Amino acid sequence: MKFLDLFAGIGGFRLGMESAGHECIGFCEIDKFARASYKAIHNTKGEIELHDITAVSDEFIQGIGRVDIICGGFPCQAFSIAGNRRGFEDTRGTLFFEIARFASILRPKYLFLENVKGLLNHENGITFETIISTLDELGYNVEWQVLNSKDFGVPQNRERVFIIGHLRGECTRRVFPLSGESQSTSSQSVVKIGNVNPSGNGMNGEVYQADGLAPTLTTNKGEGQKIAIKSNTIKQFGVLQPNFNQCGVVYETDGIAPTIRAYQGGGLEPKIIQRGHGYNQGGEHDIAPTLTSNSYHENNHLSDGFRIRKLTPRECWRLQGFPDWAFDKAQKVNSNSQLYKQAGNSVTVNVIVAIAERL
Predict the structure, then answer these.
(1) Is there a catalytic annotation at residue 171?
(2) What SS3 class is residue 29?
């Protein structure tokens, strides 16, 4: 079937849909860096290319022609008048309205949407109720399910809600409930060891156990996530304080990776780092320095046979199910900070494939 890729990012939806045999006729992405990666990865020659979705006229949409599926991981904005139960009217001023507008004109058989799990209880459920009532008003029966990337062959704990709209009167098949193929990570959980910040708090210092799942990578302002890798040079284990923030965490490489965050650059990516104190000048290291007893915040690393290093952009893309050839193409047109951000903002390709095969 032919699909239109809205809020396209770097093309996670597209890779999954094309893997299932569907054909992309066009895409829309406002971010120029994400768009550069998208066009480097995918063959978009001759396709419809849109940038700011709010600037696309109804007349242009009418000229797109036949579309079987509209895909989109739309941003979840607060609905300014949500709760008045006016359906389509209640979504005006939000980006979801743009998906609804395209659907009202193109009338595809399916709507294939993705959002954060929190959409379900946003504004005490009023936002989601408005979305469902809007789609109902437009003639779509709706089903949805929360799926976790860890159940689809990706070592990342990433829960997202997926929404399928079925145009009434068309011959469509039910998609949910859907269970993941991979059972190797489904029984694991996120286990936090502690926090390496001086206060034992803050997003820059969290440490997670490697034999469990790591938390989701998301947009953040912190220092970035860390992984702990085995080293023969360090033997003593340092005491870490507990904390509940999620950025700047440390992971072992043989465990499940955290949910990928859309880092904003400027050193926000995961790193091996030691803070300066006294005679210790601090800095980043290939091998974590010796633990000291002088100050807690000098010991921003794990020992006992581990050292801390950055999660590479390639690793983050892999955690979202992107093949290395796709990353290689994107790397040629974007900086590492953008590549981290793009991975965090993407959908997990493996999950899209599983759903797309049932459309």
Answers:
(1) no
(2) coil
Cα separation of 303 and 239, whole Å? 10
Gap between the Cα atoms of 168 and 138, Å rounded: 9
Name the strand (E) or helix (H) holding 60: helix 58-62
Element (H, E) at 310: strand 306-310
Q: What is the spatial distance between Cα 308 and Cα 71, in angstroms, rounded to a whole number?
A: 38
Contact predicate 272/307, CB 8 Å = yes
Average pLDDT, the chain: 77
The answer to whether residues 343 and 260 touch, using CB atoms and an 8 Å cutoff, is yes
Q: Which of 15-19, 89-93, 251-255 has the lowest mean pLDDT?
A: 251-255
The neighbour count for residue 253, using CB atoms within 10 Å, is 14
Name the nearest CA neighbour of 338 among 29, 16, 32.
Answer: 32
Q: What is the pLDDT of residues 133-161, one digit of tens each?
A: 999 999 999 999 999 999 999 988 899 99
For 106-170, give the DSSP string: H--SEEEEEEEGGGGGGGGGHHHHHHHHHHHHTTEEEEEEEEEGGGGT-SB--EEEEEEEEETTS
**Side chain identity, residue 342:** Q
Per annotation, catalytic residue among 24, 28, 76, 316: 76
Which distant-in-sequence residues (6+ apart) come within 8 Å of 10 by Cβ? 34, 37, 38, 41, 322, 330, 342, 343, 345, 346
Question: Rounded distance, CA 146 to CA 154, Å?
Answer: 16
Confidence band (pLDDT; 50, 70, 90) for 274?
A: low
What are phi and psi for residue 26, nearest 5 degrees? Answer: 175, 165
The pair of three-digit structure tokens given for residue 163, joined into one six-digit string: 């929404």
HSE, side-chain direction, 13 A CA sphere, residue 185: 25
Quickly state the pLDDT bin for 82 (edges 50, 70, 90).
Answer: very low
